[in-house]
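Q: Given only this backbone (573 positions), what sequence would you predict?
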């Protein structure tokens, strides 16, 4: 036993710690944890310390690494190694070495602000009232010209908007300059100089490519401080913008976008803004699918505002089209083997295109770009995109060259003037209160998507009457001022006995005259001197009231239900 070494009691001796154990690596989730900074460039994997340390018991001692370690006589352009505090060596980056190092530009996070909004939403079911006000918070960021960008849905129906800078305890009242409902972007500003002190505006970058790294910065739920999530661009295509009920170019990313992230910028690895976070896909079968408004859409919105002094909107080609992928269909349309395009099904009667184009015309090209049989055009290398992207690049009032093939194999060239679309059932009232008119307890109003959502909930696409949904999805306006007028409800009174169950039924005519919109209906009723008021409703229903009795009973009904007026302000004009 004397030749056997006895094991010492106590803790087992620790081996020498690795030299890089105390140096943060690229796995750190915090952008603010800057390891070494030269001209706003962060080294992801800095060189380890060359100084040796004697092993000691307990936790290894951390070596502090200063943010700024350049001496007075150091020259960053030499690309040489210099010595910093505590003997820590750091390599300066020369212009030749930047492509060899895993470097990343730190985005301008101080330009990201928190947006506080107070909303007062109209009550579309009781249009003379407003709902209880509520508050929300979202994100935004500073751009050139002392302006701030955020999402339109973040300030919808706002009564007050405030902004707070990163690290500040002061909220500044903002002024809304423009709201782009279709593209879900809003433009704000703040009066005075205090808010803008020390804030550098973000710079916009080019449209990224697939697998490009993106960093989403904002103020989502779960905390009060700024939050950073990272991911890559996984898809670029025409997306459905939920708030605007439109289809525009969008980016799909795998970075988490949560409530409160809306309006925050998405930065590239070069530190430039490549988009605005605005919506995400929530489903049990998917994870981390977020959507970003890309720079082409953002720039279009800003230039539209600067050009017109207000937001005019994205123009569209006022047609519905059909794919021409079937060879027999192409042969019947007189198309040659080398010709491709899409067939026009219907044309919006109120659109400028209705004066030149015809149903069954085949659109061969738009602005000199050939359209494929599936309706796509070349986008970038290895990518195709819907030709509506070309239309969305235009501004309202711009002209576009369109080549079509007519049924007699005649090729025609048109110079079309583009305009924004006027929907029969609008997706938004654009901040205006709903219109209404009341006579003898009958509440007349116009149909819009917010009205359907108020009446039937978020599943209105399944719960609303089939005829209203058909008009929402397929009907065009026959004139620019056409509206769908309905009897929203009947406020019960002696004069309307038997009519109480009429709900959300369209009004087709009054005393034999077609009802074009709510203002024309209110005008006809107010000027009526006939003995009876006769309303022709859908499904062959008829409502008849004595004129004098109906008008005299209206004031009592308004008093009973505490309604301030028999018609909205816009109908009095």
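A: Predicted residues:
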């Amino acid at each position: 036993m004397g030749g056997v070494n006895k094991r010492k009691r106590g803790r087992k001796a620790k081996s020498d710690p690795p030299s890089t154990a105390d140096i943060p690596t690229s796995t750190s989730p915090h952008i603010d944890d800057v390891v070494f900074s030269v001209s706003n460039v962060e080294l992801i994997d800095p060189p380890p310390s060359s100084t040796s340390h004697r092993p000691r018991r307990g936790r290894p001692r951390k070596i502090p690494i200063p943010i700024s370690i350049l001496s007075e006589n150091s020259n960053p352009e030499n690309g040489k190694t210099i010595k910093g505090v505590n003997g820590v060596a750091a390599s300066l980056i020369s212009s030749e070495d930047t492509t060899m190092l895993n470097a990343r530009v730190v985005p301008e996070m101080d330009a990201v602000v928190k947006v506080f909004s107070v909303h007062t939403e109209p009550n579309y079911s009781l249009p003379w009232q407003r709902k209880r006000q509520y508050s929300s918070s979202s994100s935004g960021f500073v751009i050139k010209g002392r302006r701030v960008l955020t999402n339109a849905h973040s300030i919808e129906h706002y009564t007050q908007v405030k902004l707070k800078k990163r690290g500040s305890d002061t909220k500044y009242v903002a002024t809304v300059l423009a709201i782009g409902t279709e593209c879900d972007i809003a433009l704000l500003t703040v009066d005075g100089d205090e808010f803008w002190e020390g804030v550098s505006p973000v710079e916009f970058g080019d449209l990224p490519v697939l697998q490009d790294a993106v960093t989403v910065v904002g103020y989502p739920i779960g905390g009060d401080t700024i939050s950073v999530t990272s991911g890559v661009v996984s898809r670029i295509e025409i997306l459905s913008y939920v708030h605007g009920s439109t289809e525009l170019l969008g980016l799909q990313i795998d970075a988490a976008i949560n409530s409160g992230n809306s309006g925050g910028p998405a930065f590239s690895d070069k530190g430039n803004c490549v988009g605005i976070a605005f919506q995400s896909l929530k489903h049990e079968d998917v994870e981390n699918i977020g959507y970003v408004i890309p720079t082409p859409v953002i720039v279009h919105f800003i230039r539209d505002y600067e050009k017109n002094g207000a937001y005019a909107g994205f123009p569209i080609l006022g047609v519905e089209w059909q794919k021409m992928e079937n060879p027999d269909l192409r042969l019947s349309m007189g198309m040659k083997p080398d010709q491709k395009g899409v067939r026009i099904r219907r044309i919006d009667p109120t659109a400028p295109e209705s004066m030149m184009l015809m149903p069954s015309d085949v659109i061969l090209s738009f602005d000199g770009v050939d359209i494929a049989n599936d309706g796509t055009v070349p986008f970038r290398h290895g990518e195709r995109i819907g030709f509506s992207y070309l239309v969305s690049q235009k501004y309202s009032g711009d002209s576009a060259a369109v080549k079509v093939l007519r049924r007699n194999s005649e090729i025609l060239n048109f110079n079309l003037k583009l305009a924004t679309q006027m929907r029969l059932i609008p997706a938004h009232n654009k901040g205006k209160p709903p219109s209404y008119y009341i006579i003898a307890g009958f509440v007349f109003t116009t149909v819009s998507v917010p009205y359907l959502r108020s009446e039937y909930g978020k599943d209105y696409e399944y719960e609303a009457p089939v005829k209203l949904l058909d008009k929402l999805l397929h009907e065009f306006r026959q004139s620019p001022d056409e509206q769908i007028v309905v009897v929203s409800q009947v406020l019960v009174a002696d004069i309307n006995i038997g009519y109480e169950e009429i709900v959300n039924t369209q009004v087709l005519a009054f005393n034999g005259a077609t009802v074009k919109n709510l203002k024309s209906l209110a005008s006809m009723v107010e000027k009526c001197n006939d003995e009876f008021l006769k309303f022709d409703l859908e499904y062959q229903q008829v409502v008849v009231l004595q004129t004098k009795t109906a008008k005299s009973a209206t004031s009592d009904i308004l008093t009973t239900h505490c309604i301030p007026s028999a018609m909205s302000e816009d109908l009095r004009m």
